[in-house]
Amino acid sequence: GELIIGSWNDAIAGRGGQFLERPKIISFDGRDVYQDDSWPLKFVWHGSNKYGETVVHDNCNNWSSSSSSMFGMASALKNLQLLDQQKVACDEQLIVLCIETTSSLPKRKKRQAVNITMDGEQISETIHSQGSKIKNKKNLEKNGNAEDNAKIEDNISQNKWILV
Question: Domain Collagenase NC10/endostatin: where (predicted)?
Answer without folding.
Answer: 2-101
